[in-house]
Amino acid sequence: MHHDPLHGVKLTEILTLLEKKLGWKIMGETLNINCFINHPRLKSSLTFLRKTPWARTKVEILYLKTFHADHPATKKLIRNLIEQKKTNSPQKTVATNAFNWSNLKNK
Question: Which pLDDT tens digits describe the chain residue by residue (107 residues)?
């Protein structure tokens, strides 16, 4: 038995199981992810989740809480996913070559 309940589980399986158990509407309300609210389809949701790490993290956490709440590694996995989300979130940066109106006045 592997210690990670997400190990070997494909995103397609996760979405299919969640949709069967909860339905698109509850998934959309719970996670506040638009692809589950407006015309939800498996293919478009998979495309969005593969390109959007924060949304995929929310879905993985919901999967763990829904199907593996009693698994000994679940709480630690959820903490790790949340921590990764915090460290991977884009920081606001100021571009060094940003447009500056004063440059036009000096020319």
Answer: 568 899 999 999 999 999 999 999 999 999 999 999 999 999 999 999 999 999 999 999 999 999 999 988 888 888 888 888 777 666 554 455 555 555 455 55
User: 11-88: what CATH class?
Assistant: mainly alpha
Q: How many CB atoms lie within 10 A of CB 56?
A: 19
In the block, residue with structure tokens 């389809």? 41
| Boundaries of every domain in the chain | 11-88
Which residue do the tokens 């879905």 mark?
A: 59
Residue whose C-alpha is closest to residue 24's, from 68, 59, 67, 64: 59
